[in-house]
Specification:
single chain, about 290 residues, alpha/beta, TIM Barrel, two-stranded antiparallel ribbon, 8 helices
Length: about 290
């Protein structure tokens, strides 16, 4: 079993051998008030469960299905709001970037950067993220095998940055849905970095609503439990107090009221799974 790095994001340690962390928040920054509502609900639920929390939110949704879809409040204003709310709740914040210029700008405000799945092979973007020195979460493209993520890792490592996370978020199989191959979690773990499971984007149904993306919210729970049983470093989760009214990815967002029970289940399974994994390592070390 490959030895894995632990990556620090703020005061949170994210590692395949550490208690499961949660990278959670709004899909897109709708307003400061909405982000504060979600951050408060998540902070309370995760504090009760004793689970590490990294706030996530996109300041710019450059990858929407249609041209007239909501993108955000503007780069500098959006990033300033992310920083303000993260500081208010004393949690680190992660946001995604879509070009090298955004990486440099976002690094002034965020504690970690994220490379979207469709951009996971973009060399200039990966290098720019790596050069910031911040932790970089790379989402595996829906078109990519897990072992091909080694190339993304090599590109970021070439900058001297070894603060890397790898995220599974489902694979296209040509019938309007994403399918999760749980083997990917173990394959990517073998690359030596923390592996994250994106529980909400994995249930997307891309462009199933014509000009927007659909999703099967009810499938989030089972997939997250399965991922927790494999011993992931973190679970990525998007939530909203009114998913049906969300300005981005509402159909695959978990309702905020369901977050406490969701976290409880994932944390309990993670404790058992990590216990088994530690026993196995102990036997192999003898």
């Amino acid at each position: 079993m490959a030895k894995s790095r632990t990556v620090g994001i703020g005061k949170v340690a994210v590692g395949n051998d550490a208690p499961v962390a949660f990278i959670a928040g709004l899909c897109s920054l709708e307003s400061e008030r909405m982000l504060r509502t979600v951050a408060r609900g998540l902070k309370e639920a995760l504090a009760k469960a004793g689970a590490p929390f990294i706030l996530k939110c996109s300041f710019d949704k450059a990858n929407r299905t249609s041209l007239d879809s909501f993108r955000g409040l503007g780069a500098r204003l959006g990033l300033a709001i992310l920083r303000k709310v993260a500081d208010e709740f004393q949690v680190p914040v992660l946001t995604d970037v879509h070009d090298p210029g955004q990486a440099e700008l976002a690094a002034e405000y965020a504690d970690a950067l994220q490379v979207p799945a469709f951009l996971c092979r973009q060399t200039d973007l990966l290098l720019a993220c790596g050069r910031t020195g911040l932790p970089v979460n790379v989402k595996k493209g829906q078109f990519l095998s897990p072992w091909e993520m080694a190339r993304a890792v090599e590109k970021i490592e070439s900058t001297g940055n070894h603060r890397i996370l790898l995220t599974e978020r489902g694979t296209f199989f040509g019938y309007g849905s994403l399918v999760v191959d749980m083997r990917s979690l173990e394959v990517m773990r073998g690359l030596g970095y923390p592996v994250v499971f994106d529980a909400t984007h994995s249930v997307q149904q891309p462009a199933s609503r014509g000009r927007s993306t659909g999703g099967e919210r009810e499938r989030i729970w089972g997939l997250a439990r399965a991922a927790a049983a494999s011993g992931v470093a973190a679970v990525f989760l998007e939530t909203h107090p009114r998913p049906e009214a969300a300005l981005s990815d509402g159909p695959n967002a978990l309702h905020l009221r369901d977050v406490p029970e969701f976290i409880r289940q994932v944390v309990e399974i993670d404790r058992v799974a990590k216990g088994f994994l530690n026993e196995r390592r102990g036997r192999q070390a003898r």
